[in-house]
Amino acid sequence: MHINGIDEKDNEIVNLLLSNARMSYSDIGEKISLSRTAVKNRIAALEKRGIIGGYRAIINPQESPEMMTFIVNIETKPECFEDAKQAFSEAAETTVLVQTTGNCHLVAICVSRDIKTMRDFVNRIYRSVNGILSINANSVLDVVKGSIIPEY
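^ that's the sequence the OP posted. Answer follows.
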């Protein structure tokens, strides 16, 4: 990844942290030919500017026992779109919700314990939100590239 507005050393630091956020200042310094102190100061400046927004553990639902990931496509009547958006936003099962092109269209990435729980969730949303024209859920079998749960 390349971020405009920061120099090459800072970009190298960001890319190293993206691959391993637990990398030490010393290890980063060795890889990019800077002292530990210089790396620490650069990271502090990147954090202060908001370029680095934090560090956290990312749980991979595909590898977690008793957890499955599924994607829900929803299309609603225009007057009911905000209700659907709110219902999915507030649901604990929803990890990511995006509005896409199309007529009042949402895509939600969700997690549940199993197929039955997924089906119950989709049916609960369908029954509670008026004006849903179509809703379908698809189980994620494998993540071929990237992450289905954003790391930011």
